[in-house]
Amino acid sequence: MLENLSVGTLSNVSLRIPGGQVVCLSGPSGSGKSRLLRAVADLEPHGGRVSLGDTAQLDVPAHQWRRRVVMVPADSQWWFDEVGCHFPVDAKARLPSALGFPPEVMGWSVSRLSSGERQRLALWRALVLEPEVLLLDEPTANLDNDSTEAIETWLLDEIRRRQIAVLWVAHDPGQIHRVADSHYRIHGTRLERANGSD
Amino acid sequence: MEVIDLAWWKLGLAALLILALAATGYLARLGITRSLLIAALRTVIQLALIGLVLEALFASSAFYWIALLALVMLLVAGREVVARQGRRLRGWWAFSIGTGAMFVSSFTVTILALTVVIGPEPWYAPQYAIPLLGMMLGNTMTGVSLSLDRLNDSVWRQRAVIENRLMLGQTWQQALEDIRRDAMRSGMMPSINAMAAAGIVSLPGMMTGQILAGSPPAVAVKYQILVMLIITVGTGFGALMAVSWGGRRLFDDRERLRLDRLVKT
Predict the structure, then answer these.
(1) Which structural domain, as residue segments, surrounds residue A35?
(2) In this predicted complex, what is the ipTM?
(3) Mind giving me the DSSP string for A42-54?
(4) N- or C-end of chain B: fewer Cβ atoms within 10 A?
(5) At residue A70, what are phi and psi to the nearest 5 degrees?
């Protein structure tokens, strides 16, 4: 839940996202979508209040907040040589088949992954933390149409099952139509609710 | 054995050789002539002046004069640490962190060595205190500036990685772990390499000087061992403090990476 949040050129952004629901966010590039997500994750100085249930952002240490409100950036970063080192030990056994990886992927070296593969694995890396809120910054930007829809289905299923509240930055109207429970668009300095028709 | 004093005109011979090198460099267009001449001139002037200062200091041996010289040395070293960083913290932070780290590590270790190990009477006797502190500060300065330079530069380059680690709920210490290890390594490497090569590849300057001045090699060697060990200790703790204070300053109280606190020098 966001109250009067302001960051960069955006001001007075108020939003409430119930658990298990997806709120899509769109707007021209440079309008501050990513900065808004970063403010919710408390990675950027901002005004206003953000809270999760009864917990306000400033009530808990920042890293604990970010464990519950996990952001997946548009270009994910990998800092160890091996894929598996970025995951907890038991993540290997639970690797979802919808991602389209063989179980050996945890032993692969990061350098042989394509950008689309990195993006899919980054989503799984965020989900294994069992977040209460997910902030997704164009999560399917590097994927082809088929895998985009497969990933959307898998994500929506996980979101509903775990009752995660999701703020999803998207460009493609088709995707917004498929995944969004509600849709907001950035207009200048404000956030405006888009009509259900698009 | 009496030390052979050097007449000033004999130093002129060495200076002539520098001039010859400078002339060769000029003719071959190597582009080093100017900086070579300026550096040579600085050496002569700075060392001649410190010679006069030390003569006066040894004559008076008053504690406050020694303390004043030590303070000047520390401040100059602090300025040098700031100048050697490609990117540094904004404002007074760069100077304070570097100088603070050097002060705590090199002064503590020097005083410890003077009072406990060497034990001159009084403990601040300038013949021991000033050269020892000079060697400590010189090496600590290198270690602190190398490690801070590496820290700031790597954080700048790897900001996306650090922020991605923060997004996954890591603390700022975890997100900075690899970079901190790298920065410590580059600060400590010169001292470790010097210890490894000592006596086989290189005869360290202090020992050489003492032997030239007539000390028995056995005594000179013991002093050299002491100096190399405490230099490494001072450099290590200095770099450790600089890296942990500098790293802390790169994040704010909400554990956000604050690259706006860095400026390019």
Answers:
(1) 2-193
(2) 0.91
(3) T-S--EEEEEETT
(4) N
(5) -95, 130
